[in-house]
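REVIEWER CHECKLIST
Item 1: Sequence provided? yes
Item 2: Single chain? yes
Item 3: Sequence as submitted:
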Amino acid sequence: LSLPIVGTKDHVSSFNRENILSFFNARYKSDNLILAAAGNLKHEVLSDLVGQAFGSIYGETLPSQGNAPVVTSKVAVLEKDLEQVHLIIGTLAPSATSPHRYSSFLLNAILGGCMSSRLFQEIREKKGLAYAIHSYLNPYMDVGSLGIYAGTSEERVQVVVDLILEELKRLRNNPLSEKEMVQAKELIKGNFLLSMESSDNRMIRLAKNEIFFERYIYPEDVMASIDAVSAEDVRNLACEIFTPYTITLAATGRISEKDLSFNFDN
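Item 4: Structure as written out by the authors:
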């Protein structure tokens, strides 16, 4: 996932008709296809149309997916003549099917997922060290990642990195307040309900439910699962993923690796 899925220039240049047909025939067959729809239509009518259009498409059996790679802590810096230094600090996170995924939603919201989050308030609003700073989740089938992005000047990079790491330690070592938990839950539930007003989002959610769970998860079940997460659940997750063995830093700009001190200890 760290590399562009399109491939290299040489690989793309080498593609021919046989390559593309082979790829299509192996993957685009009825056993591998999920078709989701939302709007003014009847399920029975759509099912008949899909059967007529795709029911006779057969292909090869794909090999099973490999295991998730082992993640280790590292620092990667690309020196580039840019106005700002762009950096990401990342670590492992629960997968899209993990029972801890709702805890990760709350952890992300509290850390840097909104304007009232800790990182946004501390680094941007209070100290003015970065215009853009936020955290985000990438949950996949077998593994997930949590990333923190910041854009700052080369003179402030070390201070920003140190403040981010300090906030990760605070989340791991100190109890969360009831106020933060309530705010994070209301934010996540509110965004979820707003997303349900879009037919596109409903369609995408249907497809993801089939891909990840092979069943439909009702909105009220999502809301109940969010409400069921405790402050201790979030803190336990922080202890699990914010470790010296998995925290990674990537940066690009007018900076070199020797300019950065990156030490996340227990």
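Item 5: Key structural point noted by reviewer: The mean pLDDT is 92.
Item 6: Recommendation: ____
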